[in-house]
C-alpha cells in the first residue's frame, strides 16, 4: 500500500502544484507575454509608420530638390539674359558715345579748317598786297585802293 499511497500523495501534490501554478503563476506570466507581444506589435507598427514617413519625406525632398533645380535654372537663365541686356546696352551707349565723339571731332575739324582757311586768306592777301606794293610801289595808294583790296581778299 505504500506504493499506492505514495502515488496518491504524489498525484495530490501534483494537482496542488498545477492548481497553484494556474492560479498564481500562470496569469502574471501570460500577462507579461501579452504585454511583451503588444509592445512588439506597437514597435513594428511604429517602425512601419516610420518607414512610411521616411518614404514620404524622401518624396518631399525629391520634389523640393526638383523645384530648387528648376528655380536655379530659371535664375541662371534670367541672369544670362540680364547680362546680355547689359552688354547690349553698353554697346549701344558706346556706339552713341562714339558717334557723338566723331561728330564733335568733325565739327572741331571743320572749325579748324575754317580758321586755317581764314588765316591763309589773311596771309595770302597780305602777301599779295606786299608783292603788289613791291612791284608797283609808286602807283598803289592803300587808301584809294582799299575797296579793291577787300574784294580781292574776299575772293581768296
TrEMBL record:
A Pfam entry, by short name: ATP-synt_B
Gene Ontology molecular function, alphabetical: proton-transporting ATP synthase activity, rotational mechanism; proton-transporting ATPase activity, rotational mechanism
Localization annotation: Cell membrane; Endomembrane system
Ranges that cross the membrane: 6-26
SUPFAM superfamilies from the UniProt entry: F1F0 ATP synthase subunit B, membrane domain
Membrane topology qualifier: Single-pass membrane protein
Protein name per UniProt: ATP synthase subunit b
Name of the gene: atpF
Amino acid at each position: 500500500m505504500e506504493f499506492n499511497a505514495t502515488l496518491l500523495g504524489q498525484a495530490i501534490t501534483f494537482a496542488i502544484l498545477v492548481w497553484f501554478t494556474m492560479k498564481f503563476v500562470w496569469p502574471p506570466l501570460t500577462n507579461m507575454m501579452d504585454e511583451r507581444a503588444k509592445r512588439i506589435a506597437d514597435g513594428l507598427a511604429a517602425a512601419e509608420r516610420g518607414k512610411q514617413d521616411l518614404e514620404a519625406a524622401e518624396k518631399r525632398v525629391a520634389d523640393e530638390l526638383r523645384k530648387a533645380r528648376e528655380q536655379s535654372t530659371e535664375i541662371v537663365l534670367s541672369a544670362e539674359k540680364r547680362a546680355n541686356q547689359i552688354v547690349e546696352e553698353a554697346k549701344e551707349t558706346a556706339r552713341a558715345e562714339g558717334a557723338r565723339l566723331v561728330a564733335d571731332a568733325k565739327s572741331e575739324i571743320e572749325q579748324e579748317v575754317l580758321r586755317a582757311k581764314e588765316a591763309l586768306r589773311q596771309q595770302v592777301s597780305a602777301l599779295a598786297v606786299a608783292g603788289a606794293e613791291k612791284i608797283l610801289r609808286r602807283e598803289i595808294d592803300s587808301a584809294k585802293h582799299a575797296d579793291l583790296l577787300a574784294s580781292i581778299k574776299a575772293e581768296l
